[in-house]
Design a protein that fits this description.
homodimer; 15 helices; Alpha-Beta Plaits; alpha/beta; 22% strand; Aminopeptidase; Cyt/Met_Dipeptidase (chains A, B)
């Protein structure tokens, strides 16, 4: 119970209805059929900020979808917090796998959400989570005001790689100047175990093509005498891991920073059942780099995964063909201080080097993203740990996520501020998948926690 | 010049027109839209046999398309030859790649066919080649009769795996009884280099599936901690060849019969340019089992090729997914005395054995085929070598083909007779591909050669 609890309790119904209303707008940024809805969502968000008490609210246009801005400057001498989030959502397909229409939010109980969860595209990622900040802001404004300066930057292109956010940030450094960036677009370890994401992995993504003969060949007449591009590709990919499941690309690990024992111990204290993990995925065994736990393999260690592979005849029945070429999409998750551009180059050099003379090899880079980490000694982290511990009544733990939010490095570079990832979602919330949902309790825990974070952070900065 | 040459020369136009007429019938056995045409072709073939002088000609029905039978028994004490061929053809698609309509035969000159080649589906495989036997039969009948007994068995399902030929042969052992089977459904080494195919490879074809997690996973959140089915599949496939490009499946080579030095020397004398071979396929280097030549690798040695592979995201752009499963089609070409069923079982056992505990593996067998070989000491082979040498004025060489004609083993088992593969096609005739063609010269060389084979064979059997 905090000084904000009664206000939140008194406005529970409305705060929930407002979110459901926002979820009814299919603001799918990846599909141009929905661009009108994306613009509509931006307008609705701006209106909510105004009503909540923000000043200078604007729907700032960019070469893509607009960025919604708003602020409350109470005292230039006080610290300034920039709240970042996004109002756009992932496409809903495969639509047929949804048990209820993705843009007609309904509340259903689940094992992990006995108080009910909101089922809708964007419920957790990120409408439900950024809207907590709008409601928390309203709550503070209605209960003595914000303890420090607040700025909002809610974009509409996160699900398509924040294509124009960099463009916007570079042109608005002054307006966006801040001491810290607060984001709720990640998850917690468990429903009752608060945690703060201290690191995200970077990404290097390449497409490879191995070409053999200049045309498909009859496997009877040529089999055994010419290199089969599919066989060669499998050999090349297989050689990218050694017997300890370490990546063999030369120089791959050179810049990997060791993680402090303190943080590894913190991670080890996180409640985690390997049995349940395997059971949930129907695996008889896990896999990974020798010398690291499953949690560490999925967060603080770099990886190399084939995301797609194709070549030859993939229809029904049997066709005796030797394909002219085979292709694969390969991504590497990176950790501090690996540089995506450098890793991509190392991969290209290595992959071309291991190609036998019987084939030609082509490596095409896709977008990348830098790894990101915020130390547990950052005042914003300490504020988050304190705030979450109060509302959950349990110590908040640091946690590394295996995912990537490439834009964070840009924020740090352009605004000189670190990002605090205080998320309230769960891995099981099915973001990017059918039946995405977000716990009603998580939503309100967020609205309760955020004002406490502002208070704690302001204290930390005194 | 033989005693048949003037007759053939005198009827050249008609013999060519009759073939073109047959080629106009789209007897595509794989596509039910054409079944009427397949039956029509059978009737036309029967009519030609009758006109040529065959007795007891019938269009014998089977559970599938009919088998055309005809015979000329001149003396029970003389040897009997069974001529086998097929009147059905491959589908014409991709139709758009044909430079002229596949069922409107036209004669065009090519570099390899300066006298002109017949462009049409089935021109070489096998209408053009089996019809040579009908015309050669007519020629013999018009010039003193056949030197021994002849039987014709022309089927209509070869391009769909001779589904019902076994059924027909088992029910007509008496009628089909013979001393040797003569077939023109293969090729020669070169336009001026006659050769006789002494061996064909067998086939074992399997489909494999490697399953990891029970659903597609986010490669950021799970990457590095769970086995990626695509990575695992590539490792398993890569391990199927060792550093000498020998197949590692346990017991795979146990039953491989050594090829006689005499035959290997014969093969080595075949005109073959590795440079031209590489140039034609745009390869900087060939590949294959250590210790064998390219020709040997493609004919007398067993192989393992991936014919198709697929898994994960294969669309445009980048998707960071870990697929739930990955699949591949893998075929093995077999040589005497490897048994397809046994090899398939050896593969299944081996593949399941090398699968790591972090995945599940499924191996599904497709159809197989037995390898086949006819020794160069067989009277039918000697007759072919003698006949071809006369018409081509050059010694005919033995040659192994890497392809498979599974039905030959059935003939040997059911009729106790070996098959002589005296083909007149060229690798470049594009059978099964767009713009299939057959040299006009090859067609008439066949009609000239076949009667000489009958004389030589009858002599051999005295």
């Amino acid at each position: 119970m905090s000084k904000y609890s009664s206000y939140i309790a008194g406005n529970k119904e409305r705060m929930l209805d407002e979110l459901l209303e926002l979820l009814r707008i299919p603001s799918v940024s990846a599909d141009s059929d929905y661009s009108e809805d994306v613009h509509k969502a931006a307008g609705v968000v701006a209106e909510h900020l105004r009503k909540a008490g923000a000043d200078n609210v604007e729907v700032a246009s960019t070469p893509g979808f607009p960025v919604v801005y708003g602020e409350k400057i109470v005292d230039p001498k006080l610290p300034t917090v920039l709240v970042y989030g996004h109002y756009d959502v992932q496409p809903a397909d495969p639509i047929e796998l949804w048990t209820s229409p993705p843009f007609e939010p309904i509340i259903k109980k689940t094992d992990l959400h006995p108080e009910g969860a909101i089922f809708a595209r964007g419920a957790c990622d990120d409408k439900g989570q950024f809207f907590m900040h709008v409601k928390a802001f309203e709550t503070m404004m209605q209960n003595g005001g914000v303890p420090c300066n607040v700025k909002f930057m809610i974009e509409g292109e996160e699900e398509v790689g924040s294509a124009n956010l960099g463009w916007f940030v570079e042109r608005n450094r002054e307006k966006l100047s801040c001491d810290v960036i607060l984001i709720s677009d990640t998850g917690m370890i468990g429903p009752d175990q608060p945690s703060i994401t201290t690191g995200l992995r970077g990404l290097s993504y390449v497409e490879v093509k191995v070409t053999g003969p200049n045309r498909d060949l009859h496997s009877g007449l040529y089999g055994g005498a010419v290199a089969n591009p599919i066989n060669i590709l499998t050999q090349m990919i297989a050689s990218l891991h050694d017997e300890h499941n370490r990546i063999t690309v030369e120089g791959f690990y050179d810049k990997v920073l060791p993680v402090s024992d303190e943080e590894r111990e913190g991670m080890a204290r996180a409640p985690f059942s390997l049995e349940e993990y395997k059971k949930a995925l129907d695996l008889s065994d896990v896999w990974g780099e020798e010398g690291y736990s499953t949690i560490e393999r999925a967060s603080i260690r770099p990886t190399l995964d084939v995301n797609g592979i194709w070549g030859g005849y993939i229809g029904k029945g049997a066709k005796t063909v030797i394909a002219s070429y085979a292709e694969a999409k390969i991504s590497m998750r990176l950790v501090p201080d690996q540089d995506p551009a450098e890793i991509t180059q190392l991969f290209k050099t290595h992959f071309e080097k291991i190609a036998p003379s019987s084939v030609k090899v082509q490596v095409t880079p896709h977008h990348g993203g830098e790894p990101y980490v915020t130390g547990i000694d950052h005042p914003g982290y300490r504020a988050a740990a304190s705030a979450m511990s109060q509302t959950f009544g349990k110590e908040a733990l640091p946690m590394r996520s295996g995912g990537s939010i490439p834009i964070l490095s840009l924020f740090e570079r352009e605004l000189g501020a670190k990002s605090i990832l205080m998320g309230f979602g769960l891995d099981s919330d099915a973001i990017h998948s059918p039946n995405e949902h977000y716990g009603v309790k998580n939503y309100f825990m967020g609205i309760e926690t955020i004002p406490l974070w502002f208070e704690a952070y302001t204290e930390e900065m005194k």
